[in-house]
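Summary for the steering committee. The consortium agreed at its last meeting that each partner would contribute one worked example illustrating the joint modelling workflow. Our contribution is presented below. We chose a case with several input lines so that the handling of multiple components could be demonstrated. No manual editing was applied between input and output; the record is shown as generated.
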Amino acid sequence: MQRDRVLDIVGTLARLGLAAVWLISGGLKALDPDQTYVAVRAYDVLPPDGVGVVATLLPWVEIALGVLLLTGVGTRLVAGLSAGLLAVFVAGVVQAWARGLSIDCGCFGGGGAVAPGETAYLEELLRDTGFIALAAWLIVRPRTLFALDSRLNHDLPAGTGRRS
Amino acid sequence: MGGASRNEKRRRQDAAAQRLAAAGIQVPPKKGPNRTTMIVAAVLAVVVVVGLAVWFVRGSAGTSVAPTYTASASGAVVTVGSGPVVVDVYEDYLCPICERFEERYGADLTTALNANQITVRYHSIAILDNRTTPEGYSTRAANAALCSVDAGIFPAYHEKLFDSQPAEGSAGLTDDELVAFGTELDAQGDFASCVTGATNAKAVTAETDKATSDSALQTDGRFGTPTVAIGGKKIDINNSDWLQDAIGG
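What follows is the complete predicted structure of the assembly.
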């Protein structure tokens, strides 16, 4: 059981780490909605109304994912949704890089156009890859400590629910 | 977890299920979405619905109000209205946050101008000339906006430039497009040659130099657009009551 314990702890750290990522990134975006609009617009993918909708919703969706992860509700599902959203971010950054736009990803607030020499696409993609790795761990092995999942689901097969 | 241990676990689970069955205990099969799935779906649905509601409310607040005030230009400063509270607005026509500022507060400013509560001095600033290829859209747009004052169409032209704002990093709008906007809005006089001749470019540069070196307009030693000042003092436009406060106080 020693090995399970270690894996539980690693999973818990992954869950709380990813929760922190969403809460911080969503919080910073929610605090500055105009900057968020500018950041979304700078990707030059969506029409103006689409930019408005995404810029309005994105911060709160990120915060919701963060809260769900923090409390450990539906960990595997939320990790899957997180990985999906991160994949969309990666696609956005890749298309900006490929098209030669010079923008800041606005991942943690900020965002918008930057001077051509000031882009950081590689760093942004590596960072997102790291976050996807956290999500991937939780998809493969969602059992963690201090998660509401263990209280909510008594009918899960052994290994994913509460240890009795 | 390796494939071998996974198989081992599965085998043990099957064995356990068989023992339960042998003892006459039936484990009910899982059915339907479980509770956590429902909670996750509900949380996300609430967020999306509330977010969309906020977006619609904010969008409808930005409906345009027809301006009834007049405009006059001096150098690169356009003065509109004649109310007692003087609001200095520093904008670059390529600046995306300036576009946001106009989207959010444009109608409020027009309403206050129509009610003769404020005077607005629009300072035509070009700090983002190097953000288009070829360079210089900020100056060209500022010049065209100043031309639109003499052409008698400033409020509408100013709004049009922000509604049609090109992206940073793009080529910007061409002079032909800038002229066409004026024609669309029924510009009087020789608007086209004012735009293509860069009549006000020097004034824009001078105004930009003046604004960027004015320490009263800086935050952390830097000047940026949009900047709004009342009585020569920069104010915080993230406080959404700034205009009401200025009129009331």
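The longest helix of chain A spans residues 2-31. Helices of chain A lie at 2-31, 33-42, 48-71, 75-98, 121-140, 149-152.
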